Amino acid sequence: MSSLALTLLYLLAAVLGVVACRSLRLPPMMGYLAAGILIGPHALALTQNSEAVRHLGEFGVVFLMFTIGLEFNLPKLRAMRRHVFGLGLLQVMACMAAFTVGLLVLARLMGGVWDMGWQTALALGGTLAMSSTAIVVKLMAERGELETEHGRRVLGILLFQDLAVVPLLVLVPALGSSPDRLLTALGLALLKAALLVGLLLSGGQRVMRWWLTQVARRKSDELFMLNLLLVTLGLAWLTELAGLSLALGAFIAGVLVSETEYRHQVGTDIRPFHDVLLGLFFITVGMMLDWHILLDHWALVLVLLAVPLLVKTVIIVALAHGLGATAGVSLRTALYVAQAGEFGFVLLALMQTHGLLQPALMNPVLVAMVLSMLATPFLIQYSNRIVMKLVASDWLQQSLQVTSIARQAINTSGHVLICGYGRCGQNLARMLEREGIPYMALDLDPDRVRQAAAAGDSVVFGDATRVQALKAAGLVRAAAVAVTYLDTPAALKVLAHARAQAPHVPVVVRTQDDLHLDKLLAAGATEVVPEAIEGSLMLAGHALALVGVPMRRVLRLVQDQREARYGLLRGYFHGADDDTVAERDQQRLYSITLPPGAAAVGGSPSDQPLRAMGVRLVNVRRASGHRGAADDAAVLAEGDTLVLCGHPAALSLAEEKLLRG
C-alpha cells in the first residue's frame, strides 16, 4: 500500500471512529482505539502495523508531554498541594508497590505467562497505577463536578500521575538493561536526567523567554510556529541523544515555555498537532490489540481487568479516608480513577520496545486496559447509586448538609440565592447588603465557607447543582438566583432544577463569553452576562474618554450597547428628573396594574397584541405577589401588574389597549 493510500486509510478510520464516539458521548480516544483495532492485522487486516506510522504516532506522545509541561505551574501545584503531593503521591506509590508485589507473587506461584523479573513487575506496576486524565476530566466537566470534594481529590491524583510519568519514562528504559548493567544503567539514567533537567531549568527559562520574544517581534505566525516545533522536537532529540526518552525532552520544553508570557498562545498553536498525532498513536495502539485474545483467554483478561480495578479502588478509599475524606467522598474518588490511562499505553509501548514484557502477556494487558477505560463512563454515571448502596453514612452526610442549609434559610424569603461564593459572588453579596436585600450563598470550598461564615456572611457549604441543596436554600421563596461561577455544565444543572422547581424565579448566569449563550437561554436563563462583553464595554468607554469624547456621551454610548445586549436592561422607570431633551424619547419601563373590568383581564400575557405596537412585555407580577415570565400562560386577573418596555407614545397606546380594548 502506498504512503498516500495508507494516510487516507488512517484518516478515514480516525474520522469514522471519532464521529461514532461523539454520537455515543464517549471520548475521541475510544474512537481512535476502535479504528486501530478495525483496520489492524487482527481484524480487517487493511494494513500491517507500519513502522513509519508507529514513529509518527510517537510524536503524538511528544506533543502530549509538551502540553503537560505547558500546564505545569507552581501556583496551581501550590493551591492543590494537599491533594497532589498528599493523596496523589501516596496513590501512585501504594499502587505501584501493591501491583509489583502481587505480580512477583503470581510469577513465583504460577509461572508461564506470569514469569517475570522484578524489573518487569515494577514497570508494569507503574503502568497499572496510571488513570485516564482525558476521560475523567471530560466527564467531570460535563457533570459539573470539578469543584466538588471528590472532584478536587480526583484532579489532585490525576495531576500527580501526569508528573509521575516523567520519572517512569526515565526508569523503564533503564529497567530493560541486562542484569549485570542494571544498577549502572539506572544510576546513569537518573544522573543524566538530573543534570539535563537542572541545566535546562536553571538557565533555560531566561533563554526561552528571550528567544520567543525575538521571534514574536518579527510578527510572523509561521515563524513563531516553526520555532515552537524546533524547540519542542529539538529538546526531545537532545534527551534521546542523552539516552533518555523523547517525551522527557518535550515535557521540559513545555515547562520552559510555561514560565513565559507566550504560554497561552503556544497552547492554542500546538493543539492541532497534539490532537492529530496523539490520535495516530492511539490508532497504532489499537492495531496492536488482538481481539481474539478476549475470546481465547477471557479468564486471564477478566483477572487483569477486575483485580487492578479492585486493588486501586481499595487503596484510594483507604488513603482518601485516612487523609480526612468521608467514606462517600473516598469511594467516589476511587471509582473515578480506578481505570487504566492513556499514559499506561505509552509506558506499555516503551516496555515492549525494551523487551520487558512477554508478547503472550502484552495483548491481555492491553485488552484489559481498554475495557477498563470503556467501563469508566458507566462507573462515573452510576457512582452515586454505588456509593448510596455501599456507604450508608453518605446518605446521612448529605441529609445533614441539606439540614444545615435549611436551618439557615428557614426564615428567609424574597432573597437572592447565590450559587458560588468566589470573588464575583462576594461582590454581589456586598452590593445586596448595601441595598438591604437578603441573600443566601452556596459554595463547595470548605475553607472559604468557614472564613466567610465566621465573618457573618450568609453562606453555607452546599452543592448548588443538587436540587436538594437548592430547595433547602429556599429556591421557591427566592426573588432571584445568580450563578456566579464559570462552569457551563453546572449552570445548566442549576437552570434545570430552577425551571422544574420554581419557574417563576428569574436566574442570571455569568459566563466567560458568548459561546454557550443560546444554550443557557434555551435552558431557562433570564439573562446571561458574558465577562468578555462587559470587559469590552469598559475598555471602549475608557478609550473613548481618553481620545476626548465627552464623558456624558461615553456613558450614553456604553449604556446603549448594554441595552442592545441585555434585554432586562433595556429601558428604565421614568422619574421626575428624566425630562431632559435627550431622554424624553428613550425606551423606558412602565407598570400597568389591571383594574376591575380591564380589557386584558381573562386573557394570558402571550395573547396581548403588544409587539405590533412596538412594546415588549418584560414580566408579570401577579396580585398574589408572585412574578411570572413574559410567556406565562396563566390567565390575567384583576390586580396583576404588567411591566412593559417601549417608547412613551407606544406605551400610551398599549395602556389604552390593555385597559379599554
3D architecture notes:
- This protein has 661 residues and is an alpha/beta fold.
- α8 (149-175) crosses α15 (327-336).
- It has helices at residues 3-23, 28-39, 51-71, 74-79, 81-109, 118-129, 133-143, 149-175, 182-216, 221-241, 246-258, 263-288, 292-296, 298-322, 327-336, 342-353, 359-381, 383-390, 392-409, 423-434, 446-454, 467-472, 488-501, 517-522, 531-546, 551-565, 648-660, and strands spanning 416-419, 439-443, 459-461, 480-483, 507-511, 527-530, 588-593, 616-621, 627-629, 641-646.
- It is elongated.
- A six-stranded parallel beta sheet has the order 3-2-1-4-5-6, sandwiched between helices. The chain has a four-stranded antiparallel beta sheet with strand order 7-10-8-9.
- The model has no long low-confidence stretch (mean pLDDT 80).
- The chain is 64% helix and 7% strand.
